Amino acid sequence: MSTLKHPFVTEKAMVLLENENKLQFLVDRRATKNDIKRDIEKAFDQKVKRVYTLMTMHGEKKAVVSFENDKAAEEILSRLGIM
Fold first, then answer.
1. Which of 13, 27, 45, 70 makes the best surface tag, with the fewest CB within 10 Å?
2. Is the pLDDT of residue 64 over 80?
3. CA 2 to chain CA mean position, Å
């Protein structure tokens, strides 16, 4: 079971990307921070520095991920065809 659903891209998420090198993903509600970290590192081959999670007002779980590499977030979004 993959814990990642899809990237969460909003204006606020793009500011976070540009200023702090962080990406947001919607994830499975049962996913732990370690599950999310493992899946992102495996899927995108980038070292994750930190994961924090929150619940949206719509009852979805969102993960905010920061990376060791300063350009990792931009590289991942361009690989996914979002940027």
1. 70
2. yes
3. 13
